[in-house]
Amino acid sequence: MGGLDDLYQDLILDHYRRKRGEGSLDNPTVAVDQNNPLCGDEIHLELNIVDGTVTEIAHTGEGCSISQASMSMMSEALVGKSLEDALEVVEHFRMVMHGSEQGDEDRLGDAIALEGVAKYPVRVKCALLGWMAAKDAIQTYQREGEEVA
Amino acid sequence: MSTAAAPIDVTALRADFPILSRTVHGAPLVYLDSAATSQKPAAVLDAMDAYYRETNANVHRGVYELAAEATARYEAGRDAVARMVGAPRESVVLTKNASEAINLVAWAWGVRTLKPGDEILVTEMEHHSNIVPWQIVAGITGATVRFAPVTPGGELDMDAFAALLTERTRMVGVVHVSNVLGTINPVAEITRMAHEVGALVLVDGSQSVPHMPVDVPSIGCDFFAFTGHKMLGPTGIGVLVGRTAVLEAMEPFLGGGEMISNVTQQGSTWADLPWKFEAGTPPIAEAIGLGAAADYLMAVGLDAVRAHEVELTAHMLDALGQVEGITVFGPRDPAVRGGAVSFSLPDLHPHDIAQLVDQEGVCVRAGHHCAKPLMRVLGVGATARASTYLYNSAEEIDVFVRALGNARLALK
Fold first, then answer.
1. 3-class DSSP state for residue B172?
2. Which residues pair with A32 in a beta bridge?
3. Min Cα separation B297/chain A (Å)
4. How distant is the Cα of B390 from the closest Cα of chain A, in angstroms?
5. Is residue B241 within 8 Å of residue B221, measured between CB atoms?
6. In angstroms, rounded to a whole number, what is the distance separating the alpha carbons of residues B49 and B42?
7. How confident is the model at residue B1 (pLDDT cuts 50, 70, 90)?
8. In this structure, is residue A22 part of a structural domain?
9. What SS3 class is residue B130?
């Protein structure tokens, strides 16, 4: 693969092949759809939120290895976090993708492996897709509260 | 138009395209994305460079020699394009690109003409450029946009098209050659059918004019749009060929410099065709480059270009057909289709395909190809697409298919 080691390293491919959080929740607190206008990928993300904490994440949809692996990593990284912490981690990941912050493994978990994607501007959108969906879901919940449940 | 031109000698012809000698990631460039944009021969680059170096001046204004030379070269560009598509020069309007050419019709004709209850009939295989302008116009006028379906084999469903074509249809928008499926639509027959119900016809020729002989008057359509950069020309220039009587009856699209006959405080009158539709200083160097591109293609011969591409497409369909599990979209007979071949693999996303084959110097497109309604019909979010042109060889297709196999192994 030559110069693509950053993009296709083992940890990323592992999440791509065995996606964490793939599937649906019975009665999710909030659900959102997100699409990547560049490639046409469409994903569906569901969150369960209990007492201000993200307790479960599930996702379906199609995407490239980077977007699917990133989605899987996001599902692990945000579960158990308060809504505020989850939003903060999403923002940190976004800044890492834009090359503005050094990745913090404590906050990102396996998603630290995606740091090298920042070198491929076209693929940054792929990596961000699931995280932007999570942000959208949390903000939708915060805005509409119980109504979306 | 060319007749019985000599077959293309790819090795010799490639020397005309400076970019084709470069490498990508250490491998020779294999450019298979000409449906997105074509590469440019030195003749085009030199013509544009010479304009700026030798005769740069605004057109249709100055009386001095430089301005006269600039105007002559600009209008010669229009003449070359007119010759290439068999249209009278006054019917050839230069625009920014094919999208602007279609928007010109949508705004200058559609907004002023359409009423609630009127219908615009397009096909499911249109590029967004022949969908979105009509949706905008429909939103303003209360007209409705209808979609003629595509068969599972990737052709226009002519029975369904005939059923959707009614007295309410005021405009038919149809792509000549699909940028996703490669399908060549029977645009002359479609035009005849549409005219029977009194509808106008706009053909999007962005993927046909660069690749095969096209004689616009013999199609009979009212409008024919295409773009310069897919036919060896520069970006920033497109073409709208209109039927002269229809263009004459239309009001201008954009107002400004150059498109007027007279301007007073009370109002203005319009310049003659085609300048009525060319407001402001035009893309002069781009028109000159486009003219050089048209001259180049006519010298090679559009028949020869088409024959070469039929051979390449046969090879592409054959080689891809042997890839396990692959889905190839569009007609399988190279004689009835263009050279854009879209495909998908069950285990490899188009983005990953494009990224991985790029490591071996191969440029292919991944995405929805600005045809999201068609993607939905095909049941995919995106496809990968390899598209050929006159400068490609069968060996390059082999390099690409080998790279595809390597990509598959890498992500297995």
1. strand
2. A45
3. 32
4. 28
5. no
6. 10
7. very low
8. yes
9. helix
Contact residues, chain A, for B350 at CB < 8 Å: 39, 64
pLDDT tens digits, A30-63: 999 998 877 778 899 999 999 999 999 999 998 8
- 8 Å CB contact of A65 and B372: no
Classify residue A7: in a domain, yes or no.
Answer: yes
- Whether residue A149 lies inside any domain: the answer is no
What's the Rg (C-alpha) of chain A? 14
Task: Collect all residues of chain B within an 8 Å Cβ-Cβ radius of residue A5.
Answer: none
- Would you state the structure tokens that stand for residue B289, as one six-digit string? 């480059």
Alpha carbon of residue A2 to chain centroid? 27
Cα→Cα distances A139→A21, B38, B299, B317, Å: 20, 44, 61, 48
* B49 within 8 A of B56, measured Cβ to Cβ: no
For tokens 């046909």, name the residue. Answer: B208
pLDDT by residue (tens digit) across B334-350? 999 999 999 999 989 99
Interface of B with A (CB under 8 A): 25-26, 349-352, 355-356, 359, 366-368, 372, 375, 381-382, 410-411
**Count: domains in chain A:** 1
Would you give the distance in Å from CA B222 to the centre of its chain?
17
* Domain CATH for A102: 3.90.1010.10
Return the CATH superfamily for domain B10-31+301-410: Aspartate Aminotransferase, domain 1 (3.90.1150.10)
Give the residue carrying structure tokens 């295989």.
B125
ipTM value of the model? 0.82
**CB-CB: which of B351, B359, B368 is closest to A4?**
B359
In chain B the first and final C-alpha atoms are separated, in Å, by: 50
B23 neighbourhood in chain A, CB within 8 Å: none
Q: How many CB pairs under 8 A join A and B?
A: 53
**A103 in a domain, yes or no?**
yes
| Domain limits for position A19 | 2-144
At B342, the amino acid letter reads S
Q: What is the pLDDT of residues B84-125, one digit of tens each?
A: 999 999 999 999 999 999 999 999 999 999 999 999 999 999
Q: Which fold has domain B46-298?
A: Aspartate Aminotransferase; domain 2 (3.40.640)
Type of residue at B299 = A
Asked if B214 and B204 touch (Cβ cutoff 8 Å), the reply is no
Q: Where are the domains of chain B?
A: 10-31+301-410, 46-298
How far B412 CA lies from chain A's nearest CA (Å)? Answer: 9
Q: How far apart are CA B203 and CA B222, in angstroms?
A: 8
Question: For residue B221, what is the enclosing H or E element?
Answer: none
